[in-house]
């Protein structure tokens, strides 16, 4: 039973915590096919990660971002961003996990690089 706690959603879709309520993210679903998040055709949420160190491999990116939820895909293109930095995408099966990755992953220092993490501008179709 939750008492005295609420969760509000702003216009941008980012959740704000009020009271003592905190989301519980599990590494593995309790039952096969159940993740506690919305289910359906649009259940992948992509996070854009900029300023990745050049020496960072996909498995390291996965290790860093798996703390926030179940990752379905990690992709790092060979080209550089407009700013000339290395970037990539981390895809989650849960919107809460994706927003948590944005909130907690943004500004994290890895190998002398400060990561810039945001929700991706558009989803892959």
Account of the protein in words:
This protein is α+β, with helices and mostly antiparallel strands and 125 residues long. The chain is built from two helices and eight strands. Strands 4-5-3-8 form a four-stranded antiparallel sheet, covered by helices on one side. A two-stranded antiparallel ribbon has the order 1-2. The chain has a two-stranded antiparallel sheet with strand order 6-7. Strand 1 and strand 2 form a beta hairpin. The longest helix is centred in the C-terminal third of the chain and has 11 residues. It is globular and about 30 Å long. The N terminus is likely disordered.
| Largest sheet descriptor | 4 strands, antiparallel
Low-confidence stretches: 1-19, 28-35
Gap from first CA to last CA: 39 Å
Strand content: 25-35%
Rounded average pLDDT = 77
Figure out the total of helices: 2
* Number of separate strands: 8
Query: What radius of gyration results from the CA coordinates?
Result: 15 Å
Estimate percent helicity.
10-25%
Read across the widest sheet, the strand sequence of neighbours is 4-5-3-8
The SSE order reads: EEEHEEHEEE
The general outline is globular
**Which class of secondary structure composition applies to the elements?**
alpha+beta
């Amino acid at each position: 039973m939750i008492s005295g706690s609420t969760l509000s959603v702003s216009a941008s879709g980012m959740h704000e915590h009020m009271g003592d309520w905190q989301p519980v993210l599990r590494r593995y679903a309790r039952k096969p096919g159940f993740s506690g998040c919305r289910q359906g055709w649009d259940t992948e949420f992509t996070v854009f990660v900029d300023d990745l160190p050049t020496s960072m491999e996909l498995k390291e990116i996965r290790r860093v971002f798996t703390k926030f939820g179940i990752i379905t895909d990690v992709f790092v293109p060979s080209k550089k961003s407009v700013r000339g930095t290395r970037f990539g995408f981390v895809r989650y099966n849960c919107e809460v996990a994706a927003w948590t990755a944005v909130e907690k992953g943004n500004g994290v220092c890895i190998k002398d690089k400060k990561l810039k993490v945001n929700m991706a501008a558009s989803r892959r179709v």
